[in-house]
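cache lookup: miss for this entity combination. No prior model stored, computing from scratch. Input as submitted by user K.M.:
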Amino acid sequence: MNFKLKDIGPQLITVLAVVLVFGFFTYNAQVNMENRGIDFGYGFLSQESSFDVQFSLIEYDGSHSYFRAYLVGLLNTILVSVIGIILATILGVIVGIARLSPNYLINKFAAFYVEFFRNIPLLLQIFFWYFAALRALPLPQDAEPLLGVTFLTIKGYFVPAFIWQNFNIFFYSLVAAIIAIIVIRTHAKKVQETQGKQTPVLLISIGLLLILPLLSFLIGGVKLSFEVPVLKQLATTSFIYEGGVSLPPELIALALSLSLYTATFIAECVRAGIQGVGKGQKEAAASIGLTPNQVLKLVIMPQALRIIIPPTTNQYLNLTKNSSLAAAIAYPDLVLVFAGTALMQTGKAIEIVSITMFTYLSLSISISILMNWYNKKIAIQEK
Amino acid sequence: MFKYLKQLTSLVAMVAVLFTFTTETMAAKKSKTLKNTQKKGFVRCGVSQGLPGFSNADAAGNWTGVDVDVCRAVAAAVLGDANKVKFTPLSAKERFTALTSGEIDILSRNTTWTLSRDADIGLTFVGVNFYDGQGFMVRKSSGITSTSQFKNGISACTNIGTTTELNMRDFFNSRGISYEPVAFEKADEVVAAYDAGRCDTYTTDKSGLAAQRTKMKNPDEHIVLPETISKEPLGPVVRQGDSVWEDIVRWSLNTMIEAEEYGITSANADSMKTSDNPQIKRLVGAEGEMGAAFGLDNEWNLRIIKQVGNYGESYKRNIADTGILPDRGPNELWTKGGILYVPPSR
């Protein structure tokens, strides 16, 4: 490393300018806040929040601190983002491949889906799904059981709760199965590379995933029972399900609209990726006797993924940030709970907005880092 | 080392936007807000996004309501024309920031006067133009006629960021009832969700319940329960640090209330100038120097009464005649069994 002044000079000036601008705004904010009698500080985070939140992954009520309320909001944002990303990816890949289908109907249907959903503003779609669902779903007392023991109602989707005994043994059996699968896969790959012999890895994997947890039930003392939701009357025409787990309609509507919207963009990424692989690649692969499945798995996809991953990362980031529209339909995400209620109860606008911004920034950067790592892993290995 | 410089720059720029405030120093002597208002030629007033009776815009964009009338009164006093008001509709979330950052000069948006709001966040409450309290609305068909019939598992729709959320928690907690709070950012969505059946009850200030009930698909299917679970004195708010402006807004409101007390209306205000009662004469600018301390002329209060009317007229026009709350309840003058009592203009 040898830095020369002409190399680092402009950089230093930029840093200096940035620091000065930043300093000016901070100073300006300080003076103005002082003039208006507004205190600045993060001490409020440890104060009692005294408001409740509808839906929380961790134990929380109004007697906890504002910091705890922040965590509740953050976890809810992460929850809806993760659900949204998984659903959008599955749907996006299916639709993307469907758009390349030679079947006219499938092809056009996929194209229609993409054009329809990506051209309507997301906020409208969220409102549509939420209020359409609310109007369409039955009241708890009118709900027909779905799959026997679950109830989809206007007040939420009520599903049985799992009650485990010796859950840790079941969990270890799953971990053991996964480790075994990894070992077998590595071994199978080696065998194929050295001897050209193929092992039915998929079948063995599925078998292991079934048999080991099953054993934990039979001889490990694991027991699973269900707590089924039961209808309870609150007033003459007012009912609710008790027991079991309730998924609020706000979460369902938000996850649904986010994934339906983002899936259109992912579908286009997938289509572009597959079309970006030269036709000759497919023909060459077929000519050396690979089956169509193998062509897709061993030749097309590895090359297509390199094109698909970077723009798909953008879509994941968009989805995460778009989840902040949750506030419109009462899903208690970070923006609603922290930058909404907490901000208004404390009046700490600058502190709370800055914390919220840095939180979204960190979430986005984490997703970027993860996806960049994956991208690097599947990139062409220059030897 | 400088690899992340670009990202860093954009990050810092982003944060800088957050800290953008207009530079402003407080003029100690004369009111800067008053000076700016007179220079601009209109009063900048923050109102709700639509609450019938308090601040609501019709199809033509004309704002009406008792909260709106407070701003109109100030405009009549300082600019001579009650119509010279620029209304900014604000959500509960935006309202205080809009005021402290100087986007508006009066916040007249059914805002509850509490200690922490008055003391903490750079705001000053100037008075009360509506005494309210939080209540619950339920569907008639539910058979619920009192909050004592609420049971575990009840779901309650409400707005975020209002005192409502805190009162609701206190109420349910003190009775040991578990409840599901469903909190929306905008009142319209709360109403839509409750109306669709998402919640068993809708809770907010009783005046708000009465007003929003008129927006329901079938208003007759809903009732407001008799219990009031909190004190909600609603009133106009100004920024801290401009005591002259604060006084102008306070006494514009007081003038409206006192005018009703002395029977001065928009119709008879001019003829009251020759009244025998010196207190009435002071209220219509015919005696004393009642405007000088604010830097206003002597007929500022006369203009308020002539152009906007007294409090009773405003209440009748906006709240009683629209069928929202025909009964004035506590918002009746102290001389008639209510609690409206303002210091004398003298």
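stored under new cache key. The radius of gyration of chain A is 26 Å.
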